[in-house]
Write a structure and sequence with these properties.
Number of domains: 3
Number of strands: 8
Structural class: alpha+beta
CATH class of the largest domain: Alpha Beta
Shape: rod-shaped
Number of helices: 8
CATH topology of the largest domain: Tetrahydropterin Synthase, Chain A
Order of helices and strands: HEEEEEEEHHHHEHHH
Largest sheet: 3 strands, antiparallel
Radius of gyration: 47 Å
Length: 281
């Protein structure tokens, strides 16, 4: 009889001991209620509770986690419809407040992000929504961090992932960008042509100046000029003949020969004959 009672007591003690032991993993905390009221928080490691009186109502991670907000419709100040999505990084700082202050903290954060996004984008022109993404992220972070403080939650970072306009607006933006790129290319090409023309003109001026300086020191400058002119004339006719779209120019060979001879032998002066011999009245 005594051994039976001892066995029952041993069994009760063993069951009580096993039922009172709770192990909480690292990065996790648990909340304990005693007789329906909050009692204490269990930290990572080995913990003991009172069976039948204490109940673990929540065991939750305190590590940073990610909340992905699906694309949501929004309207800019100039009535352009957009689809905007974002990601939120957050973690629990005070598990007791998170559990007792808000019913569903993730749903609350998601709705707060959606509301803030729509409200902020509604005050911005469509074109500013892309360039102001950093400002939008900072605004979301400030407002979410302030709002979730009462829930025992810390929002560490908010990132707007994409801002997508309708296909018609996107096509108009692409056409506008293409037109702007074409305009810039035209301006750059015109500037390049202008610079090339200026450089060619400057090169011609420098060549003439150099040739003038050389001819000043020579007594046969007139003959040199005649030769250079005739050479340029012959080169121009040769290029004209080699061109694919060249035109045939019919000239009297005799006139062409006489013209070249006169050009080669021409000397200026009131008493000079084109053939190079002196001419007396």
């Amino acid at each position: 009889m005594g051994s039976s009672i001892f066995a029952v007591l041993a069994l009760l003690i063993t069951g009580y001991s096993v039922g009172s032991v709770r192990i909480v993993n690292q990065g996790t905390e648990a909340l304990v209620e005693r007789l329906g009221r909050y009692h204490r928080k269990l930290r990572p490691g080995l913990n003991f509770i009172v069976p039948f009186m204490d109940i673990i109502v929540l065991e939750e991670s305190t590590r940073e986690r990610l909340l992905d907000v699906e694309p949501q419709p929004a309207i800019s100040r100039d009535n352009v419809s957009l689809d905007v999505d974002a990601v939120v990084y957050w973690k629990v700082l005070d598990l007791e407040r998170t559990y007792y202050a808000i019913e569903d903290v993730e749903a609350a954060i998601r709705e707060l992000v959606i509301t803030t996004l729509r409200s902020r984008i509604g005050t911005m022109p469509f074109e500013d929504t892309f360039s102001s993404r950093d400002d939008l992220n900072k605004l979301l972070l400030d407002q979410l961090d302030e709002a979730t403080e009462a829930w025992g939650v810390k929002v560490t970072r908010v990132e707007v992932q994409s801002i997508k306009p309708p296909d018609s607006v996107l096509e108009s933006m692409q056409q506008q960008q293409a037109a702007e790129l074409k305009r810039r290319a035209t301006v750059l090409e015109a500037q390049g042509d202008q610079e090339a023309t200026v450089k060619r003109a400057q090169g011609t001026v420098d060549s003439i100046q150099l040739l003038t300086n050389v001819l000043k020191e020579r007594t046969d400058s007139r003959e040199i000029l005649n030769f250079l002119i005739a050479q340029r004339y012959v080169d121009a006719n040769q290029k004209l003949g080699e061109s694919d779209n060249s035109k045939i120019v019919f000239m009297d060979p005799k006139a062409l020969t006489e013209g070249l001879v006169d050009l080669m032998n021409y000397k200026t002066g009131p008493d000079q004959h084109p053939s190079g011999t002196d001419h007396h009245p």
